[in-house]
Design a protein that fits this description.
about 35% helix; single chain; alpha/beta; about 425 residues
Length: about 425
């Protein structure tokens, strides 16, 4: 059996590594001619870090990212609303990593090339595919073709494969929130490995360090969010579209906290990128015949709760496990979707409701001008409930994660042939 994977992003490459570890032959087809460390920062949550570590990537991850120590929610005046430890400090057996998205992709790409060699392809843009009872045939823009038993579409929010199955879906769903993103070399703040979310749903600033520099500074990833009125038009998302500090500073220019200089981070960025926050509605079905969706092609979500890339990593590992453990290919694909489609749909819906960031909105609604005693604004148990509820939805309950069995395929299965 040979599995074909469209898309050499985080989800597609993790799928290739997971299938390889499970003894399943696969090929990856990436449309870009060259894989570069593009983009800005992301967080990889402990449940996804566990899967990458079990694939043998622990040392490389630790050398590339920063192990997040805490998350802190604050109002627009810098007053702390909620803070809690993260990763190992929160009792997980695996860390949480704040990391540059492009560097993580390059790490995965280089590892995949080391392990799978010529099965990793660049410059292969899918234009069409067809399937029959025995498998799937791909056709590429360069005139080439590929044939395999299964197609895994990990080709992102504008997935060609998803569009083939749902031609009337239309563009991604935008609710009016615009993001400006950048990275800035700056002095460390708080613990030196803290993730900060300040403001509220309509105007929010998020930052976290993603790399340490020899001079003691940290490369700090930041996101400035502003929500516009319904019906406001904006251009399609494009990670190459530049923004300007002058567009953002009128909104955040006075956000000087005792422990964080928000306008300083904005002004210090060598490049700023402008991006609308979009997602898509959960689908009723991912799998049709021998073709299924994975990652952003299956469940693009708002970047809230740091779960987009993490959920694609979980998809990859669960899929590989099911393709080995189930008696047939069809049963393996069905078991993959049965577990992962409802789980990710719940995260998509939770993120639309602002996920764990709801605590910012709750306090802003009750104390828009700040507070002197937080307990009179919101009881501690209400804050705890919001945080715990999102962890449950996202599969991040520490005890449950620490206690569940490994998704690695037991040894000795590399020679098993699927029916």
């Amino acid at each position: 059996m040979r599995v074909l994977i469209i898309g050499g992003g985080i989800g597609g490459l993790t799928t290739a590594l997971a299938l390889h570890a499970a003894g399943i032959d696969c090929e990856v087809f990436e449309s870009a001619e060259e894989v570069k460390p593009l983009g800005v920062g992301i967080n990889v949550q402990p449940h996804a870090v566990r899967e990458l570590i079990e694939l043998g990537l622990g040392p490389r991850l630790a050398a590339t990212g920063i192990a997040t120590q805490e998350v802190r929610y604050a109002n627009r005046f810098g007053q702390t609303i909620w803070s809690e430890p993260r990763g190992l400090a929160a009792g997980y057996r695996w860390p949480q990593y704040s990391i540059h998205r492009g560097r993580l992709q390059v790490l995965l790409w280089e590892t995949a090339v080391e392990r799978l060699g010529a099965a990793i392809h660049r410059g292969k843009r899918l234009v069409d595919f067809s399937q029959d009872a025995d498998g799937v045939t791909l056709r590429f823009a360069d005139g080439g073709t590929a044939r395999g038993a299964v197609l895994i579409a990990a080709d992102g929010i504008h997935s060609i494969v998803r569009q083939h199955f749902y031609p009337d879906e239309g563009p991604p769903r935008w609710e009016g929130c615009l993001l400006w993103r950048g990275t800035t070399l700056a002095p460390p703040y708080l613990s030196g490995a803290s993730m900060v979310l300040a403001g509220n749903r309509d105007r929010k600033f998020i930052c976290y360090p993603i790399a340490r520099e020899p001079d003691g500074q940290v490369l700090t990833n930041w996101i400035a969010e502003e929500r516009y009125a319904p019906g406001t038009a904006w251009a399609r998302e494009d990670w190459n579209r530049r923004g300007q500090a002058a567009d953002i500073l009128p909104m955040f220019g006075d956000w000087h906290f005792p422990w964080l200089d928000v306008p300083g981070l904005i002004q210090g960025a060598p490049a700023i990128y402008e991006f609308p926050m979009v997602d898509r509605d959960p689908l009723p079905r991912w799998t049709q015949g021998r073709v299924t969706l994975l990652g952003d092609a299956a469940h693009p979500m708002h970047p809230i709760g740091s779960n987009g890339a993490s959920q694609s990593i979980l998809d990859a590992r669960w899929l590989a496990r099911q393709l080995v453990q189930q008696p047939t290919l069809d049963a393996g694909l069905a078991a993959y979707e049965a577990a992962r489609r409802p789980a990710t749909a719940a995260v998509v819906e939770a993120n639309r409701g602002d996920g764990p960031d709801r605590v910012l909105d709750m306090v802003h609604a009750r104390a828009p001008s700040g507070f002197t005693d937080l307990d009179t604004v919101i009881p501690p148990e209400e804050l705890v409930a919001v945080a715990a509820g999102y962890k449950h939805i996202a599969g991040l309950d520490p005890a449950a994660l620490n206690g569940r069995e490994s998704w690695s395929v037991p040894g000795g299965l590399r020679d098993i042939a699927m029916k």
